[in-house]
Predict the 3D structure of the following.
Amino acid sequence: MKILIIGGTNFIGPSVVHRIHAMGHEVTIFHRGKTLAELPLGVKEIKGDRAQLLELKSEFQQLSPDVVLDMILYTEQDALISMKTFKDIAQRVVAISSMDVYRAYDVLLGKESGIIPVPLTEDSPLRQQLYPFQDMPQRALNAPADYDKILVERVVMSDAELPGTIIRLPMVYGPKDPLHRLFPYLKRMDENRPVILLPENFAQWRGCYGYVDNVAHAIALAVTNPQATGRIYHLADLQVSEAERLNQVGKAAGWQGEVISVPRHYLPAGWNLPFNTEQHWFADTTRIRQELGYSEVVSQAEALKQTIEWERSNPPPEMPKWTGLELFDYATEDEILTRLV
């Protein structure tokens, strides 16, 4: 099978390329050439910007891919161009989406009321408001203001002539994570802090995470299995409370400290997270496991080990912007701790 991957050189992409290539398929990646990645021998490259897709249609026709995996569809316009480019060329388009399409995401952010039942399934209600990052002063990974995976999914799944597959990703962690999801807590562990204090409501909150190689394995299955045509899948390999997740990280890091859940009235006002933590955000992964035979290829212990080793060797130049400075207000933390004991 011939597979064309749009993107494929950042974070998740190289692992996807390696897995599909190892399965015996012919892989070509289309990318800007700005990110270096170690690719298997035999993988072909076409360099260009996704804004040039239509201009390069004749080149894609010569390539004649069976399936196109588009890993960088952020906007409705992106999706429209991609589908127009590959109509009459490919048999299917696989689009990478996100768990942020669900209404539970807006409830979590306080944009919608009510609590959505969990675990989320692929049929759970979607957000009622579009453009989730539009009003955010700092958008993760420089996402455009008109980012919206709901609109991307509508375009990809509504073309009768070019079938689609959607994969909704969890929060992905692992080596080369551009968001350094583990680093702020790992830094505290490596600085031998005796405790990590978590607001009680956040300590109990459950989200969904996926290790990069497990996510890549799931994507490879969806790309190469015709049974995935017309289907929507999501996946996750870690869906525990935040307190339990940090305890697992601590164990893997060799930390001897303790994660402590703190009632709100003990905390300074600035430590109250601006989230509705009554809304959990974890998912049922039955569909991809039953239909495509997905299971984790990397154990939880090994996933954390590999991630911790990379984070220690590649600390970010500054603290990730998604985390609050209160994490490193050790004096206040120590004062709270004295009132707790």
About this structure: The longest strand covers residues 92-98. The chain has a mean pLDDT of 92.
